[in-house]
Amino acid sequence: MAYRKSRYIVMAAAVMAAAVLLATGLPKRAGELPPLEADILKVGRADAIVISCEGRFMVIDAGEEDDGQEVADRIAALGGKFIDILIITHFDKDHVGGADILLEQIPTGRVILPGYEGEGAEYSDFIRVMKDKGIEAERLCGRMELSFAGATVAIEGPDDYDIPAGASDYDNKFSLITTVAYGDTVMLFTGDAEKERLTEWLDTAERGRADLLKVPHHGTYDASLIRLLDTVKPRFAAVCDSDKNPADPKTLELLKACGADVLETRYGRISLLTDGMNIEFRQKTKH
Predict the structure, then answer these.
(1) pLDDT at 8 over 90
(2) Domain ranges of the chain
(3) Which pairing describes strands 212-214 and 185-189: parallel, antiparallel, or unpaired?
(4) Which pTM was predicted?
(5) CATH superfamily assigned to domain 31-285
(6) Burial tier of 17 (Cβ tally within 10 Å: 0-12, 13-18, 19+)
(7) What are phi and psi of 8, to 5 degrees?
(8) I want to staple 123 with a disulfide (CB 3.0 to 4.6 A). Which of 97, 118, 164, 241 is the partner?
(9) Using one digit for the tens of pLDDT, what is the confidence trace for 24-43?
């Protein structure tokens, strides 16, 4: 009798669980997820990327000083009033320059930075505004993983932030690399990573394919791109360049040879829209 009673209890619990699932809805699968949009803005030879889904916003870099307002305007146009996550990949002025204006315009939650101190007025202004707003940045060493609007976001820094004695140009070596996985869709944002940083990233773990590659360092050619493209095999490649400073023709040839559809921000804002399976990739021309 005790056995029969416990069996009935288990059956009743299973029925109740099924009823809850019917009431709340089963977990959504790739192809059924709310649309996630990644906008790579036209801000010259600089990075400014806005990722949005169901009223939540993540920003990767904020361009130069004058670009912060454009990033804020894009978020406002999408109905945003709060930035959940701001990632600054490194402290070159074409990545951190607009971050102070952005923070002054829009309240921001988490700020994730590489684990070294930057130089220059743009970096100092950014740190000052963070302090004024009471924001405590998370300085990343190694790897962290977080959730954003149903997407899994992996942010990876270098093994160390040792600055060689007398070095004056080291920021690209410290670029954070961000992977956003949403359903079956994978987007890879590489900052200004060059040969040493890309090689380190590729050697750190087994890497898979990416639907979207934000091409590193504005399309500057580097032999390490060959291995990167052979590994991630992107369907789409986005280059943050300008008419004044276009991508290296050798890089564009390499991207096309690997079968990627290539768009450059010199021709306008690039947008990727996905439901976790299907991808729409388009460009809004702006002259």
Answers:
(1) no
(2) 31-285
(3) parallel
(4) 0.89
(5) Ribonuclease Z/Hydroxyacylglutathione hydrolase-like (3.60.15.10)
(6) exposed
(7) -65, -35
(8) 118
(9) 444 567 778 999 999 999 99
